[in-house]
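Go through this chain for my students:
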Amino acid sequence: MINLTRRLSTLARQFSTSTSKMSYPSTMQAISISRTGGPEVIEKLEIPFPKVAPNHLVVKVQYLGINFIDTYYREGVYPAPQFPFVIGKEASGVVVALPTDESVLNDPEYKKRGYKQGSRVAVDYMGSHAEYVSVPWNKIYVIPESVSSLTAVSALVQGLTAVSFMEEAYNVQKGDIILIHTVAGGLGLLMTQLAKSRGATVIGTTSTPEKAALAKANGADHVILYKSEDTVARVLELTNGEGVHAIFDGVGKDTFESDLIMIRRKGTLVSVGNASGTVPPFPPIKLVQKNVKLLRPTMNNYTVTSAEVLYYENALFSLLANGTLKTQIFKEYPFTAEGVRQAQIDLTSGKTTGKLVVKVSD
């Protein structure tokens, strides 16, 4: 009788696994590139359903987030591992399958996450611009009831970047004076809100009076219109010639030299991105004059371990839930090649404010 029970149990598990596998479609739609180049290389392809590793969850995608890193891969600034290459690293959706690896299911860190089929989650994983994505369990963020899936995707990468950079790259403190370039963008607005919540004075740069008004509405104390004002002179005026404690610079090449003038002695320059191009090579002796600390971090190196992922998950979603951080949606685009092309064009035009998202499914 015991042997029969065991055999029936084994058959039930095999049938359940087979049924689970059969429930996946054989193919899916994805936003891909087959070569590097301009926005015209973006295409929507039908590709095989991803191979699901035993330690992965499978997520049915509802929303995608558009980020500058998508353009870096499309342009070849960051090399794609193969072609065609599914772009994107930010999504939100619903868990449709859990890991099958028993060692994962019994891992105490895994159990802390409370993953279930039907859980709403956000994904920080390359290749996420597709109808489904298979993701290692420790690269998924569980969305609490108090945060919508749209808010989660609009805040995940930029919010994790803001929180981790302002804690580990430069720990913003009460009384600091902080300079944030492109302050009215999605990341800039979140950084402004976070810095203000910590008691810092925020100086921002942007291109238009409308963007300046938005930045001030989100807490910026001073906003410099870099097209019509002398940014260096204005920053030095506002800081009595001392410069700022830290600079968060997502522009790159066009602002690097002036950053070294605007930073104060023993200040920290955090290179966040390359919107104008990468910073050219330079001799480190340039940093000697003021004992400047220079970092070029990436958020993903602050969220490597499962403990780090859980820490920043809790930190970000708590800040969203209590209203410290508020996301701004610039526009929602369709899940088409044309939609994603336009989103990348808009993102790199310098004319957007807040977050650009793509709706994939309900």
